[in-house]
Amino acid sequence: MTTTQPSDDELEQLYADFYTQHLEPLWTQLGTLMPIAPTPKAVPYIWRWSTLYPLAQRAGELVPVGRGGERRAIALSNPGLGGLPYVTPTLWAAIQYLGPKETAPEHRHSQNAFRFVVEGEGVWTVVNGDPVAMRRGDLLLTPGWHFHGHHNDTDQPMAWIDGLDIPFVHYTDTAFFEFGADGITDDTTPDVSRSERLWAHPGLRPLVGVGARDSSPIAAYRWEHTDAALREQLSLEDEGFAATTEPGHAAVRYTNPTTGGDVMPTIRAEFHRLRSRAHTRPRRDVGSAVFQVFDGTGRFRLGDEVTPVSTGDLVAVPSWTEWSIEADTQLDLFVFSDAPIVEGLRFARTQITEKA
């Protein structure tokens, strides 16, 4: 151990030698690498459906869909992430647009994906050969490494949001991709998919394939079931029973029937309903989330900013950002997050302010 004060030249040479050997001293970066609390680069941001949808329509007129580009999907790029096509550091979200009678050919990839439909119907997504109808309010799953394509059987265009774990998979260098059929393997249009016929019966599971699966085998979580569950929670609240997460705030989580856990290993999906004039308590969560307003109007408080939202708007909530929601009308919200990753790594932490 040296007992003399090093000269400036000696320190400068030491740091120069670190640099040439691709080394970085912790003592100069401790505050950046180990902050007192999360300091996300992503920022809270709201994309307006009234802007997104017309842009998607223009893309539909000008950009073909097919082998090569594969999907007419327009990613939400968080302004804090330096131009990366990521809505948060772990999540990817896009509006996908499919024109009348168009087909998006099949492919598969390591990334887990879902579709959520805020308006319209008439498209079938074909997942591992199983045609699944896409309708308003439905959550549709495409787990990693499942072949999938989409076809529009109508004379009208349709748009929906895609959510994937692309940033996380990219950062961990775990991505694989493979082209499938140039079209789709099944162009039929059944009202109910085979996966729903086998798996989507409340409280019941088939004795075929009884082992746990990493992702839910249910290809579609239908709006009529989601709506009924939320409606009954609020009805029970009216009758004096403890059925809601907060006063006037009903919520459900989409689950994997083989485990009781999240629908996919990297993505959590939930649906929330707030009565008119209800509000949530302010909270912070480790991990990021994206909300889409399914119906109604209200306001998001993100940090110190309060912003109105309406049907179709998408809201990015970065890690450890304080947020709360206030409803003007009944407000229905779909939300997905990276909670399974955060919880699996034992990094989860939540701070809730009791007084809203």
Rg value: 23 Å
Helix and strand element order? HHEHEEEEEEEEEHEHEHEEEEEEEEEHE
What distance separates the N and C termini? 55 Å
Give the strand tally. Answer: 22
Question: What are the low-pLDDT stretches, counting only 5+ consecutive residues below 50?
Answer: none
The amount of beta strand, in percent, is 25-35%
Question: Can you summarize the main beta sheet?
Answer: 6 strands, antiparallel
Determine the fraction of residues in helical runs and give it as a percent range. 10-25%
**Order of the strands making up the biggest sheet:** 1-19-16-21-14-13
Structural class: alpha+beta
Helical segment count: 7
Shape: globular
Rounded average pLDDT? 95
Structural commentary:
This protein has helices at 8-20, 30-33, 49-62, 166-171, 194-199, 223-238, 339-344; strands spanning 45-47, 73-75, 92-98, 103-109, 113-116, 123-127, 130-134, 139-142, 148-152, 158-164, 177-179, 220-221, 249-253, 268-274, 283-285, 289-295, 298-302, 305-309, 314-317, 323-327, 331-337, 350-352. It has 356 residues and is an alpha+beta fold. A six-stranded antiparallel beta sheet has the order 1-19-16-21-14-13. The protein is globular, with a radius of gyration of 23 Å.
